[in-house]
Amino acid sequence: MSYKKLIGLMLMMVMILLLGVGCSKTSNNEQVLRYALEAEPATLDPGKSTAIPESLVELQIFEGLTRLDAKDQPTPGAAEKWDVSSDGLTYTFYLRSNAKWSNGDPVTATDFEFAWKRALNPELAFENAYMLFPIKNAQAYNEKKLGSDALGIKALNDHTLEVTLEKPTAYFLNLTAFHAFYPVNQKTVAANPDNWANDVTTLIGNGPFKITNWVHSGQLQFAKNDHYWDAATVKLSKMEWPISDSQSTRLALVENNQADMMVEPPVVEHDRLNQAGLLKISPYLGTYYYVFNTQKAPFDNPKVRKAFSLAINRDALVKNVIKGSKKPAYSWVAPGLINPATNKDFREEGGNYEVEDIALAKKMLAEAGYPEGKGLPPITLLFNTGEIHKSIAEAIQEMWKQNLGVSVTLANQESKVFLESRHQGEFQIARASWQGDYTDPMTFMDVFKDPTNDAKYNNPVYNRVIEQAQSTMDQKIRMQAMHDGEKILFDDGVILPIYYTTQPFVTKPYVKGYFWSVLGLADFKTAFIEK
Fold first, then answer.
1. pLDDT at 27
2. How buried is 87 (Cβ within 10 angstroms: 0-12 exposed, 13-18 middle, 19+ buried)?
3. Which of 433, 429, 398 is nearest to 411 (CA)?
4. Is residue 36 helix, strand or coil?
């Protein structure tokens, strides 16, 4: 079936669905943005959610103490200002007197205290609880070692929130813009703790928009939140978001004027879309890599790990297999993070730590006791089921065969089984990827300090360097410590970086005023339609 016929069939099916949920074309003068959402949100409870589609919706309807600007720096959000103690341990946030929920109730410091304690509640077991661990006694409470009264979170009055940290955390303001730190309306959540976020009548937020209709797996409809403290800045009157997990369907919606924007168009369409001026590429703070099990032969030997990483051609992989405007990765921390001490990109400043050198790879493998791969135990590369993962694995498998003389078996598993295998260490080398949760290099660097990291890696020197970066407010010292830590990771050959992620998206030229965060989220607070 031809592309046009396939798209026509998909579009007809989608139109039948959207007619039932009220999707409509917009006139030239209407301030209505139509975004094709890539998946049905599993939940819009900001403490519970984990995926990008949920975070994207939540960014429009909630707001933390801070909000990231177009340069991904924290600016005043629900809090109009804050004080930080000289030792960097105590933050006092002053909420706006006109901060209100979408139902008109005032947003209070108690709402924040309730939300953060709820996110840390060990009985609820929210996956993002660890994000709040910089708060004093947060980890101990989450691990049931202390009660909630010991937490460094205290509403001093309706408009003042005092937060005490375990140690100075220079990126704490960045964290307060993350969805796990959003407030929730205590009255609403307490009345319906399990399902409040799945019902439009109880889904009360404090952001620039509010949800007016939610046809599950069909469409989300938004309206401007007139109670939002900065409502005067919000130009859109409505948003209509059809939902489809099909890349082709979402692209068809845009190209047939039923939507204005979508992410991840099919790779085969990139050249055509680029020529039409519709394709855009936004930075996306993430790295796709292979992780070695440093406790399992033969990858318990760092020379073997380095040899395998030296022996692949990342540029060829990106150009011929991966595509999508991705960038070859030669280090761990992805581009897009600014060093506040120098105002330079952390990645550009640090440079590359990995190289591609077949001769050196062969030399290191021989030094490890496996000349030309002889004597190596059977090796299996594990990846989760998916066409792109399979294609990358096959290409790298062939590179290892040609460049090292090593035969590697490929094995794929369904995602849940795969993640459990990685967590349990039931692999030798496995596919992995990491997307930043906040806009500081520490979102990458603390991964391999965690004793439960997938690589089963534990280097006391590395841990001390990262602890140094986590325990000072001096940006020059902490940034250098993270550069030092990254070098240690590659001296030890812990990972095999493959590419830095990007966010390809398609948008109509009349959509203005939005911006994409490197965290993969589009902020439509200041967006508008100009036809």
1. 53
2. exposed
3. 429
4. strand
